[in-house]
Structures are given as structure tokens and as C-alpha cells.
Amino acid sequence: MDLIVRGANLPDGRSGIDIAIKSGKIAAVEANIDTSAAREIDAIGRLVTPPFVDCHFHMDATLLCGYPRYNESGTLLEGIELWAELKPNLSHDWYIERALEYCDWAVGRGLLAIRSHVDTTDPSLGAARALVEVREQVKDYIDLQLVAFPQDGYLRSPIGVENLDKALDMGIDVIGGIPHFESTNAEGTEAVRRLCALAAERGLMIDMHCDETDDPNSRHIETLAAETIRLGLHGRVAGSHLSSMHSMDNYYVSKLIPLMAEADIQVIANPTANMLLMGRHDTYPKRRGMTRVKELMAAGLNVSFGQDSVMDPWCSLNTGDVLDAAHMAVHAGHLSGHNQMSACFHAVTDNPARTMGIEGYGLEVGCNGDLVVLQASDPVEAVRLRPTRLHVVRRGKVIAECPAQTATLDLPGRPKTTEFIRQTKPPA
Ligand code: FE2
Fold this sequence. Notes:
About 35% of the residues lie in helices and about 20% in strands. It contains 13 helices and 18 strands. The chain has two domains: about 5-50 and about 360-420, Urease, subunit C, domain 1 (Roll); about 50-355, Alpha-Beta Barrel (TIM Barrel). It is an alpha/beta fold. The strands form four sheets. Strands 6-7-8-9-10-11-12-13 form an eight-stranded parallel beta sheet, sandwiched between helices. The chain has a four-stranded mixed beta sheet with strand order 3-2-1-4, with no helix packed on it. The longest helix has 18 residues, at about 185-200. Fe (ii) ion binds next to loops. The site of fe (ii) ion has 5 residues, from loops.
């Protein structure tokens, strides 16, 4: 064997499990594997998970925070204005340099699959050209999937339609959209119809920024679900953000969610970004702008959490750790039940892997030899601690490592170190 990870806790609750990897694939998953390997990792009591997945990101804009100035209002619209000012000044090299720097952060966080939207409404298609190159450069350690995203509107931008086609011809993987940003509601509907038809014609997936607004009348997700069903695109279509669902009338939502379930819409919430951006026109009480995660999960939809932004014109925060998004979702969506917190861990691992269609993802025999050893014992603790990634493994090779985080104590009669992990048991 090339690598054996010993004594792991798995996300499904099994413990004391060894995982053996040979020739880049998982060769065995069982207790006490009786063979040796070129390298062995002691993971006793540690949670071992398939890699983290971020299925909603904007790599073309990342690490631009502060250029040409900060977003002082904190609104989505000031972010879009800032991005429009920046676009003409972003060189090919700067796109690539920032993307590669971010990918380094991602690997350190055990984040080995990313779906990034790429703005296609820049006349030069500079972002698309650069990120296609980055996708190739990082392919040995990150699965980077690119979405053709008409930031200034598919129909509203004079080059929206033409450039989206060109980006797909360049090899961008997925069709994007932004119907709530088109000039009128009717044009938003028209954009959804045309983009769905294009996906059917080209045999591609769709991931649409949909209803990222506090306006309860922004209902493009309804058209997206209906067109998905009409064209037989079930399971291939994602609705990202879906913020307006937070503000919609409950009666309307009681019809909408079953329609989304019928279409097998892939739901992607962006809890950290939308908690910052939404509700900005409210006085008090302030709406949170995160879609109805609890209800969508309960209806059986595949729900994932993305970061959306890391230090870009929209959001100066985030770190490349999708567990921050899961942690925020627990707070914003009142998802604090034990099983709900566990579901939030799956929303940044296997759920987005399914949305992206990643082949060989998981910890079963025959899957890719990709995994992360965490300084936590189970998924709920991982969401609570957002812990250190002790070892990050890709195709059986350790590609990142970090020492365990501990605090050294100087207290009379107490242990010398703590890991912030609960050690105590009820008294006998
Ligand atoms: Fe986004």
C-alpha cells in the first residue's frame, strides 16, 4: 500500500477504521488492516472525511478586497459597482496569481473541489481565459469546475448572449445566469428559459444565481424548476443563493418547495456572504437573507453551502474554510439540532460533490484516494471547532499538513495542554 490511515472515525459514525490507498485509489476500508504501507498516519479518535467541496465561489474576484477601495456600504450593489470599475484593469497575470494563491489556501483547508463562477460580461473574456488556464494548472490537486456567469445580465448586457456562448466554446463547464439582475422581471424569465434551452442543447449543467434579493416577488426559481422539469434536466440544475425565499409568503413556498423537489434542483446557500449582504434596506427587525435551508433539507432536496466570496468586492471576510459557512448556517438557520448540525457538515462535503458530479468521491473502496484528517472527533465537532486539517491527502499522497492546535496551560493540578475537544465523561 502507498498510505494507510489508522483508527479513524468516519462521518457515518464508524470508528477504529483503517483506510488503505494504493495507486491513487482507496483499496480497503476496515478495522485492523494487516499490511504495511510506505507511509502510515495515526488518526485514532480523529475524524477522517472526504475532502471539502465549495460549489459556489468567485475565483476571478478573490483577494481583491480594498481595490480600488473598500465596499463601505456593504451592499451587493456596491460590490457589483466596484467589480465593474476593477474589470478593465485586471491583467491576465493578476487573475492567475490571485487564483493560484487562493488555491494554496484551499489545499491547506482540505478544500479540493471548487465550482467557480467566472464573469463573462467583460468584453475581453479575460477572467474566462485566465481561469481555464488555472483549471489546468491545479488539476493535480484541485477539481476546479467553471461556470459561465453573465454578471451584468445575460440579456441586459449587450455582449451577454454572445460572450456566454464564446466562454462555453472555450471549455467553461457549466451555464450560469442572474435573472433577478436583468432589466425587468419579464426579461429575467426570458433569460431563464433561454439558458435552460441552451443547457439542454449543449448537454451541460446549469448553476444560476437566482433571486439573490430580499424582494419576495423575485420568483425566478419557480421558472427555473418548471423549465428543468419541462426539458428533463432533473438533477443537473442548481439554484444558487435563493435569498428571496427567506422573505416569501409561507403559502407560496408550500407550493414552490415541492416543485423544486420534483425538478431535483440542487440548492446552494451562501450563509456567510448573504448574512453580510442581505437585509441592508431593513431597519429592525432585519432579515437574514439565507434561503430556507431547514425546510429544503426536510423536503429531501440536496442542499449545499458555498463561500461565494473570500476577500473580494462583496465580502472582505472568509478564509477558504467552508466549515465557516456551515457554522454560520447553524446560527442563521436555527440548525442547532444534533442531526441538523451533522447535515450542515454534509452540506460542505458529499452534497456539493453530488451537485458538481465529482466522480470517485467518497471513502469507499474504489473511490479516489483523497481524504482529510481533522483535529476533531465527529462532524458536529468539526462544525463547532472548524478544526485544524492535520493531513490533506490527494490520490494517496499527503499534500498539506498542519500541527495540531493545542494550548499549553500553567494551572495547578490541571492537564498541561488542551485541544478544545471534550474529554470528560459522566462521573461513575
Ligand atoms: Fe455568487
